[in-house]
Amino acid sequence: MPDPSILLVCQFGLPVRGLSPYGDALFEALNGQPDVDVRPSDYRAPYPGFLHPAAGALTGDRGDLHWANPLSWRRLASADADIIHLQHWSPPMAGYLAPLASMVRRAGKRLVVTVHNPTAHESLRPLEPFERGLFKRADALVVHDARGAMALSRRFGIETERIHIIAHGVRTASAPPCATAQDHESLGLDPSRRYICVFGNLRGYKGIDRLLNACRQVLPALPGLDLVIAGRLWSGQSGLTAGLVAKALKTHRDSEVLRAALAHPELRNRVHLREGFQPDQLIDSLLRVSELAVFPYVRFDSQSGAACRAAGMGCPLLVSDIGGLPDLAIDSQWLVEPGDSDALATALLAKLSDPDALIRGRVAQLARVDAYAWPRIAEQHATLYRSLPGARGRSKKH
Question: How far apart are CA 77 and CA 26, in angstroms?
Fold first, then answer.
């Protein structure tokens, strides 16, 4: 029988936008599967870009699927493919993905939806009926971890047999890379000092204020250590409309809390904030110079792309025991209770007081995520595609 043909709908390519690193890696890995025919379809605009509360956020100027263009929905639903695989990560997207899902089903195709955030980071209850409609029409729903599966089932009453756990893939280095003088120079950091880091979108649920509270205990005890924070604040400073959205979502408060914490005298000159979008090469440099990366999330039901990236570089992760983060941790000694600044400080002191163990931890971190290498994740997707009734034998290989 012919191989199933899949239209993978995500963000792709440069400049980096939202899920484009995930989309690029999954598409590349699926192309390496011998029995899957996959084509990409890019979101031209997954939501109104001017509403995004982060300065410099990009929604792209290419692609096929546009949130405000029903003709683009119809074209995608009628594409020559056995399976349409949508990526869903923000509740407002469900407003048009739900009717698109109906079009897909009427066209006699199978529908797979990867739900990257089973629980929204902000409260958007008015949009839940649209999400429920989207998920109801899907033949299969993919989440990245067991806790996310439970949250999705609980929130929307979805039968567990339609929910499939496929981990977030990790690009893994063959060996832990070493820091160079150029890394420190590109980051503007003193090579004689030690560093830990956190990076990504700087939002309230990520617990960075708790990390700063912990650093007020840790930094005086380790005078040669600094913290680097890199990423975008969802402050709404990119425009009037974005500012109103930031206030409605209360993300402007996250920015205010972070800036207030950074102003504390004990943290001055010891915490380096690199605000705004960070190019890949700078994040790579940051992970090479950092002795560990901290992801102290306090509300979470999914997996962190930033944590996956750090783990794949062999940078040891100290993470909250929440969502899918424990799946990436070397062992239970690298987990802390969400929101507990004192426990986080104790763990940081313990890890950072043993530099030799941190060096061994880089090798252990790579070994821990070897099972999440993208070829294995693609194989699990291929198995799911083949399991869908009627997914084989209706389309010709492209």
Answer: 21
Q: What is the pTM of this model?
A: 0.90
> Which among 59, 78, 49 has a CA at the least distance from the CA of 16?
59
Residue 281: both structure tokens together: 């090469």
Backbone dihedral region for residue 157 (phi beyond 0: left; psi -120 to 50: alpha; all else: beta): left
Do 5-169+373-387 and 181-371 have matching folds? yes
Q: Check pLDDT > 50 for residue 394.
A: no
- CA angle, residues 200, 147, 93, in degrees to nearest 5: 60
Burial classification of residue 316, based on how many CB atoms lie within 10 Å of its CB (0-12 exposed, 13-18 middle, 19 or more buried) = buried
Task: Write the CATH number of the domain with boundaries 181-371.
Answer: 3.40.50.2000
In order of 67, 287, 327, the CA distances from 331 in angstroms are 42, 20, 9
Q: What is the pLDDT of residues 322-361, one digit of tens each?
A: 999 999 999 999 999 999 999 999 999 999 999 999 999 9
Cβ atoms of 162 and 138 within 8 Å: the answer is yes
Question: What is each CA distance from 105 to 46, 86, 158, 321, in whole angstroms?
Answer: 21, 13, 18, 38
Contact criterion met (CB below 8 Å) for 3 and 393: no
Answer whether 118's CB lies under 8 Å from 302's CB. Answer: yes
The domain spans of the chain are 5-169+373-387, 181-371
Residue whose C-alpha is closest to residue 62's, from 52, 77, 72 = 72
Q: Beginning with the edge strand found earlier in the chain, give each strand of the sheet holding 317-320 in spatial order.
A: 271-275, 225-231, 194-199, 290-295, 317-320, 335-336
Among 191, 194, 195, 172, residue whose Cα is nearest residue 180: 191
Tens digit of pLDDT for each residue in 40-80?
999 988 977 665 655 545 545 568 899 999 999 999 999 99
Q: How many angstroms separate the CA atoms of 303 and 299, rounded?
A: 12
Architecture of domain 5-169+373-387: 3-Layer(aba) Sandwich (3.40)
